[in-house]
Amino acid sequence: MLIDGYGRKHDYLRVSVTERCNFRCQYCMPEKPFSWVPKENLLSYEDLFKFISASIDEGIKKVRITGGEPLLREGLDTFIKMVFDYKNDIDLALTTNAFLLPNAAQKLKDAGLKRINISLDTLRPDVAAKIAQKDVLKTVLKGIQAADDAGLKIKINCVPIKGINDQEIVEVLDFCKERGYVIRFIEFMENNHAKDGAKGLTSDEMKEIISRKYKNFKEVPRDTSSPAQYYELEDGYQFGIIEPHKDDFCSACNRIRLTSEGYLIPCLYFEDAMSIKEAVQNDRIDEAVEILKKVLAGKPEKNKWSVDDGNEVSTRAFYETGG
């Protein structure tokens, strides 16, 4: 069992397999050219699997594969099958922008993937192109349908940005409601890599917009392991809102993150990290597990943000850690 210094049990491992992405979303990626980590610097699937299997032995019950955009790394379905074959009741999930899903969804499902989180910020092609810096919506919608057809459980993530997609909140909610997908709206997380001037909506602003159509939704008692607060419409459909600046979900945080280069990150908003790369590459798995326990021992009690002009800002590159 993996316990941190505050007595929190950790059974959820998020694994980034690449920092590369085929989108340049305004709230995440820099527009200017920058250097990708060379492929030879990344942990191989075999080395990632060594650590994941050892973590499962220590009590990890859920593994989420993230990026960047994880489908950009070749052989992802084979990697997922390695984890599934090791323990087939593990909760295996993937976060993706869905652009490459049309040809991948069934292979991922066949490999053992169970659930998928997909970013969908708009249903308007011109707005999607503005956010992602390329024409993507038609292919993303095909990817969502392919995941549905394959029988994957689907959650949709949406980041409302003022002046861009903020008036589509109800439209995106209805799209998900009609199809039985869970939708989670995420407050924009200020970070040094976002486009200058990008401003998100607060939870209260989102709820006010939703209330214009759905007047009597109610708050659902919180599942403390989830970062989302859920609300229920009169017909029983539930939607979530994630408020990263609040720390009410930190007391039950159960997750740890591993980057594609082998750094263990105890908290998305905490800069300290330790590397397991050398240990796993040299088959010193016990040492890697000890590093994991040391990282958990130093995990902060709650979010730690930097402050810039009075605003809480993260210096973390979310495309390196999967958000």
From TrEMBL:
Assembly description: Monomer and homodimer.
Protein name, UniProt field: GTP 3',8-cyclase
Pfam families, per database record: Mob_synth_C, Radical_SAM
Residues bound to [4Fe-4S] cluster 1: C21, C25, C28
Binding annotation for [4Fe-4S] cluster 2: C250, C253, C267
Residues involved in GTP binding: R14, R64, T95, K155, R255, I256, R257
Known cofactor(s): [4Fe-4S] cluster
Cofactor binding comment, as recorded: Binds 2 [4Fe-4S] clusters. Binds 1 [4Fe-4S] cluster coordinated with 3 cysteines and an exchangeable S-adenosyl-L-methionine and 1 [4Fe-4S] cluster coordinated with 3 cysteines and the GTP-derived substrate.
